[in-house]
Write a structure and sequence with these properties.
This protein is of the alpha/beta class. Helix content is 39%, strand content 22%. The protein has nine helices and seven strands, in the order H-H-E-H-E-H-E-H-E-H-E-H-H-H-E-E. The chain has helices at 14-21, 25-34, 52-60, 73-85, 99-104, 129-142, 160-176, 181-185, 205-214, and strands spanning 42-46, 65-70, 92-96, 115-121, 143-154, 218-226, 229-235. Strands 3-2-1-4-5-7-6 form a seven-stranded mixed β-sheet, with helices on both faces. Strand 6 and strand 7 form a beta hairpin. Helix 2 packs parallel to helix 3 (52-60). The radius of gyration is 17 Å and the shape is globular. The model has no long low-confidence stretch (mean pLDDT 96). It binds S-adenosylmethionine (SAM). The site of S-adenosylmethionine has 26 residues, from helix 3, strand 2 and helix 5.
Amino acid sequence: MLFPGEVFTNTTDFDTGIRQLIPRYDEMLDAITRCLPATTNRILELGCGTGELSFKLMKRCPSVQVVAVDYSPRMLQFAKQKIQAFGYADRWTGIEADFGNWANEPTTAEIGTGFDACVSSLAIHHLTDEMKLKLFRRISTSLNPNGWFWNADPILPELPLLKEVYQTVREEWVQHQGTTVAEIRDRTSSSSTQGHSNPDQLATLSAHLQMLTTAGFNSLAVPWKYYNLAVFGGCI
Ligand SMILES: C[S@@+](CC[C@H](N)C(=O)[O-])C[C@H]1O[C@@H](n2cnc3c(N)ncnc32)[C@H](O)[C@@H]1O
């Protein structure tokens, strides 16, 4: 049984498999990095997985220090080895922690505060809405003034009609990669609740934006959206 968010039975399958499964995965992550100034110094990444977003952030921001949190020892270990191999280890700190615990008790993990930005991709949708709001509040108090939070996540269809549309788009994407959803599923395993994360707990885009407002974010924006995937966030 995997932790929610690990997705693939073998961590080594993640980087290829996620690009087959998630339409425009690289474009979505690039949208986050483009929305951060290249001069950004300190970024918190929640649910870093195998470090793909960390890489893009360190390429975009030449002097940035990334603090990357993930509760999965095997994902974190895989990310660390890749980052060392590419010579970025001095700008990246991996922390094994549940970001739900951090939302409840900021002192439970050595994550710290004073970030210029916080980012996350494909991870926060594993929290209940109650915990998402708590996490957004914690992020808002951990950012420097004018700091940004950008999150990329799947969203709930706003209308019943769109559920089918979103499913068709994903199937067409997978076919375009020369595979099938069933073939990709063979490389995945199911997950149950682990710490604060559960199998998918999706919310609509408007519900996310409402939670960000309640958590104190301003200048809310959705710089990228592709069917059921969105990059959204705001400024403190
Ligand atoms: C689908 S992966 C995405 C990884 C990476 N952000 C990317 O876009 O490639 C989700 C990651 O979030 C992590 N994760 C899920 N819930 C978490 C939690 N409550 N605390 C810390 N990490 C969590 C999982 O272990 C996994 O590595």
